[in-house]
């Protein structure tokens, strides 16, 4: 069940769990005004197809959005936006304005979504301040709508708990601070969702298995990520609209926010362009499976520390398979015909070898 509805007269999407005072008054005024078939207020996640119509009922001092009989799931309580939610929007808006960008709260996109904060810059960035519990599927669907309307949403989590949608959409989390009043500038540390990428050699001490082939370490270089430390939410509000921080899919899966140079290094090491594009995960996963099922033919693997030019000219060709077990040799050296399991040797820089 979700608290998201569509108010048909204005063609707007609303979250009944955090309405602005104006929208709360608008929805409350519908009490006793909606009959079945009017299609004024529609649930965006009905339990049954065709059972999306809702009306407003009141119990005590509380308003509820209820489905007509046969609608399939419970009522939605209608709530005002919390003070904490409002202050978090104010914090993002202030940070973007301090960075020289125009920022607007409760911005309606061409995709009928409403962004908590819209930051207008070279990369149109929308902020989703999310305090209520929603599913990853719902967050991804909403992100895709905003993305197709020309906005890159970044979802904000304000606690140490990790929501289900975190890493499924561009996300950033901050340290636990009080929101009983508006925090000082740079008080909110960007604690999660941000990464930097470096090149790490594929050895047993770094990778248990080769990330490319899911076998023993290959000796080549692969991307490795670590937290992008030292940033505040203020920095994120300034960097994302300026394209100084960009979202990417790590190996086609988790979504991280990284510096552009890190994404460039990732592309160089993997040969893949995993820049985040909302709604394209299935296509990326298919491409990734195809790439991982093939030998890498990238010219950049023709040279380097572990390639054939380290084998002295005139030496015989190195065997390709182990004489004992028959498996393909990863460590190839003229005269060596056993694998590391059957005939282990120490891996030192004085040995002449090449890797397949």
Compact description:
The protein is α+β, with helices and mostly antiparallel strands. The chain has helices at 21-28, 83-98, 136-148, 233-239, 260-270, 281-292; strands at 4-7, 12-15, 41-43, 53-59, 62-67, 76-77, 102-108, 114-120, 125-129, 152-157, 171-174, 190-192, 195-201, 221-227, 246-250, 254-258, 331-332, 354-355. It folds into four domains: 4-77, no CATH class; 83-192, Trna Endonuclease, Chain: A, domain 1 (3-Layer(aba) Sandwich), CATH 3.40.1350.10; 195-230 and 245-292, no CATH class; 307-356, no CATH class.
Question: Can you walk me through this structure?
Answer:
The chain is α+β, with helices and mostly antiparallel strands and 356 residues long. The chain folds into 4 domains: 4-77, no CATH class; 83-192, Trna Endonuclease, Chain: A, domain 1 (3-Layer(aba) Sandwich); 195-230 and 245-292, no CATH class; 307-356, no CATH class. Helices cover 19% and strands 24% of the residues. The protein has 6 helices and 18 strands. The chain has helices at 21-28, 83-98, 136-148, 233-239, 260-270, 281-292; strands spanning 4-7, 12-15, 41-43, 53-59, 62-67, 76-77, 102-108, 114-120, 125-129, 152-157, 171-174, 190-192, 195-201, 221-227, 246-250, 254-258, 331-332, 354-355. Strands 2-1-3-4-5-6 form a 6-stranded antiparallel beta sheet, with helices on one face. It has a 6-stranded mixed beta sheet with strand order 7-8-9-10-11-12. The protein has a two-stranded antiparallel ribbon with strand order 13-14. A hairpin with a 2-residue loop joins strand 4 and strand 5 (62-67). Helix 2 (83-98) crosses helix 4 (233-239). The protein is elongated and about 90 Å long. It comes from Labedaea rhizosphaerae. This is Competence protein CoiA-like protein.
């Amino acid at each position: 069940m979700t608290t998201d509805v569509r108010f048909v007269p204005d063609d707007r999407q609303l979250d009944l769990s955090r309405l602005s005072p104006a929208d709360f008054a608008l929805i409350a005024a519908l009490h006793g005004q909606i009959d079945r078939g009017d299609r004024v207020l529609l649930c965006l996640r009905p339990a049954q197809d065709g059972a999306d119509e809702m009306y407003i009922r009141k119990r005590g001092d509380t308003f509820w959005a209820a489905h007509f009989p046969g609608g399939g799931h419970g009522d939605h309580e209608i709530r005002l936006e919390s003070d904490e939610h409002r202050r978090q929007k104010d914090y993002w808006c202030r940070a973007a304005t301090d960075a020289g960008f125009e920022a607007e709260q409760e911005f309606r996109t061409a995709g009928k979504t409403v962004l908590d904060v819209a930051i207008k810059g070279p990369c149109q960035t929308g902020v989703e301040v999310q305090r209520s519990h929603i599913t990853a599927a719902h967050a991804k669907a909403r992100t895709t709508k905003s993305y197709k309307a020309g906005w890159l949403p970044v979802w904000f989590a304000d606690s140490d708990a990790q929501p289900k949608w975190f890493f499924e959409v561009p996300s950033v989390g901050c340290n636990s601070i009080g929101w009983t009043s508006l925090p000082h500038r740079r008080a909110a540390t960007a604690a999660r969702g941000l990464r930097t990428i470096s090149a790490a050699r594929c050895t047993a001490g770094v990778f248990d298995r080769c990330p490319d082939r899911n076998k023993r370490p290959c000796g080549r270089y692969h991307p490795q990520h670590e937290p992008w430390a030292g940033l505040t939410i203020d920095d994120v509000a300034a960097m994302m609209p300026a394209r100084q921080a960009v979202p990417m899919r790590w190996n086609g899966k988790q979504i991280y926010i990284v510096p552009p140079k890190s994404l460039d290094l990732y592309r160089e090491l993997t040969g893949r362009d995993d820049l985040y594009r909302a709604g394209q995960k299935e296509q990326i996963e298919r491409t990734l499976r195809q790439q991982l099922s093939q030998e890498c033919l990238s010219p950049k693997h023709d040279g380097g520390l572990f390639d054939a030019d380290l084998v002295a000219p005139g030496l015989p060709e190195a065997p390709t398979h182990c004489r004992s077990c028959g498996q393909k040799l990863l460590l190839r050296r003229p005269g060596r015909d056993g694998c590391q399991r059957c005939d282990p040797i120490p891996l030192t820089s004085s040995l002449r070898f090449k890797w397949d």
